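YM 10:42: ATPase sequence, as discussed on the call
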Amino acid sequence: MNLKISNLAQIKEAVIEDSDLVVIVGDNGTGKTLLLESLTLFKEHYRDNLDKLIDTYLDNNFLNIDIETNWDDLIKYYRNTKLENIEDDNKDKSPIKKFLVKIEVENSINVEDFFSNKFELMTYEINDLIKERVLFTEESNVKVELLDIPEVKELYEYEFRFILADDVGILLGGEDEKNLATNVFLIQSEEDLNENNKTLESVETYLPKIVNQETFKKILTRNLKRNFLKYVYGLNSTNGRLLFLPSERNLYMDNALRKTLDQNYNKSKLRYSEYLFNKEYLEFQDSSKRFSHSLISEELRKLFGGTLNFKDNGDVDGLTTTDGNVIKRELFSTKQNRLLPYILIGNPFHNYQEIIIEEPEAHMSLKSMNELLDFIKVLIQRRRKKIYLTTHSDVFFSRLNNFLLTSNDFTTKVYELKKSGSETFLESKTKTEYGYEIDLFSNELEDLYNETITIQNENLDK
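YM 10:58: structure's back
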């Protein structure tokens, strides 16, 4: 998802391109948080409304998209799998059925016009939301534009995977799950059952529980079309949720935070990033009441130096270190407090595909900073998460720069928020054989070097 944001408080213009890792460097007060909050709001609003737009389009233009596949083979798979599940109550999971699909779009202009118009209207809504939730004002000329609305071809061919679990179908993309959206849907419902199935032979006992061929084809066809449109217009950002980890959080939760979900957002007077974080943490608490033993990854345990303990209400109670000592929550070190937001990533009910981390190096020693960066590497390379980072630390960025110089298995975009008078603008940085050069760090370090040499020479002359 490539965005252009203009007139966002002091930020005159910022163009942000989608990537596996996005790094934004800037001095204090240049607008890094405002930029991330606006980006998050856009992504969240887009994600929340895309399914509705797709359903609206299909309700009115269903025949414009044609699906071709081996329906006989798919129906046979569905019937056999359904019967096996009925006969074997202990069967945990159905096999995965792979099948090729050809998708023909009869009028691609019709699709493009519909979604382009809807996205344009959506940007007006988002502009108003940014004023309300990010800037807390009605007096702003902020403008957000979506730069990469795709063209629609007339013919596509994909490999899908289909899993049947009880009456729920799970539709996936090809081997690379980034290729196509995931879709979960009901195969069977009260109105889907067809009494004519009783005429079929050999499976008469179970047939009232099996959707007839036409109904199965109809249900799967619609969901294939939904997945296709979600893939085309998902812009690599609609699978899973987005998690925002602000720079200053200690996770000492109380009932006041729960109220942030119960009142009008504007009345809460919280920054948008804080509101998002509180909301996700409160949902995490509910998960940790039941799944506390499996929420923390092995990599996080190493960072914490032990296993976290949870209270009955799902809040963090303390830490049992690797040598068996128990540390109460109130006695956590700065590093342990700083790491606490990362436990949200393990929420089993939320598939966080994009994680925004604001100033991960804040309040950390060089050693802790390096350990945290190693964890972030795991998120990118092994967990395949998309990461957005902001920083104003030359030390942290230097270590990150070394990582980027030695890693080529993911895409990266690096930006610098630079001042020009009273305004700032976002500058895209180019990777060289030495990595990425940040003007803020180069200038400040040069000034520090010159000042140091001057002072040392003056002392030698005394």
